[in-house]
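During the reporting period the student researcher (J.K.) took over the structure-prediction task from the postdoctoral fellow and processed the backlog of single-chain submissions. One of the processed entries is reproduced below for the supervisory committee.
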Amino acid sequence: MNFRPAAIVLRHFAYFCPANPYPMTRLSVNINKIATLRNSRGGDNPDLLKAALDIERFGAQGITVHPRPDERHIRRVDVLALAPILSTEFNIEGFPSEDFCRLVEQVKPAQVTLVPDDPTQLTSNHGWDTKTNLSQLSEVVARFHASGIRTSIFIDALPEMADYAARTGTDRVELYTEPYATAYSASPEEAVKPFVLTAQACRELGLGLNAGHDLSLENLAYFASRIPFLDEVSIGHALICDALYLGLQETVRRYRACLD
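J.K. obtained the following structure tokens:
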């Protein structure tokens, strides 16, 4: 099952509508760091479920989790507990092991993001080689489509990777933005160039477009302004760090303002 044709129709409609040429980019907050803090002492402080509901109430349009096999932050029980209480989009990201796939099929979130993480990785640090892994990714995408789950594939900012991602039948890709964040302070224009090129390729291919990793209050607005058809950003580490000083509600407001 492939949902992309309908998405293309909607995008073409938005493109030719002068009053609203692009839909608003949505903010999905990754709550892994809240779970990390909780796990450091055991118990339920901070309360992950309450934090997720508060983040929604403060204006986030989605909640993202990335359960890893060692459960060092988000646990399987967290995923199962979050699913029935969230009112915004639930995005589960991770490496498509059999255990991960079964969990996603059980929960049926709005979106699953496929990430090429080794179980020992501290955090995601590259996108999929969609050409080499075309067969594997195609099978996983078809499996999740059979359960009615929108799929996104985490890729580097390379048009070729977008091309092969489209061949899997995926609905979206998520651009790995750490290289942009690293280069932003030296030259924002140069830093964003490969992302704009890849985003344009995605648009021509009919792919939805997400982005994430090291996006922050410093660099988010510029990134979003250069890619106005960006569907969603997923932000965790920087947002939670900012919340230590600004408070969670004000931080969510500021990130939304960068996108609005």
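The committee noted the following: The first strand starts at residue 26 and ends at 30.
J.K. will present the remaining backlog at the next meeting.
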